[in-house]
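Handout, section 4.2: multi-component inputs.
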Amino acid sequence: EAGVAQSPRYKIIEKRQSVAFWCNPISGHATLYWYQQILGQGPKLLIQFQNNGVVDDSQLPKDRFSAERLKGVDSTLKIQPAKLEDSAVYLCASSHRLTAVPTEAFFGQGTRLTVV
Amino acid sequence: AQSVAQPEDQVNVAEGNPLTVKCTYSVSGNPYLFWYVQYPNRGLQFLLKYITGDNLVKGSYGFEAEFNKSQTSFHLKKPSALVSDSALYFCAVRGSSGNTGKLIFGQGTTLQVKP
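Output:
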């Protein structure tokens, strides 16, 4: 089974510029997550989709971050404008679907963003 | 509020020795607990999970974890460490009441296995 695909792997931008990340989840996985992992910290959930609907975006800085999941499959995460503190690894993950008994999430390799 | 604590930033063990990476949690309701491993420049890789049942959970690569409800702990263990086990390990929790499946991660513990 193919894993979660993310692109690009690395991105360097100047502050105030915009950037977008792409994620293709495992086929058939209804739930998709975007996590932010700052160096030295554990991943923090930014947004969670169930199919193409948002389930949780409580920690998404909505003044600069946006995300969408087209047709319940691929997803893009955008930052506009970027700040220095957005430098982090952005991880996409997917799981089968939300159930009372949780299944594990499968993670992509991540996109390392450096804002200079 | 849900939270996870990994009290050790780094654990050092010699190859062949047993290893333990500690994790404690706080959730409302029954906890669902996970361990993930992250190798350099890689995404997180699922190791094992506790949902219900036997307190000792076995996972990938010879790892196991013991759920202790009274101590609210879920320590990761391996009887004999390998140099290739050196990586960053994350404990995560999801509570069973009123949640949307969101995993809360600890800050991570770096495991260093020396030959």
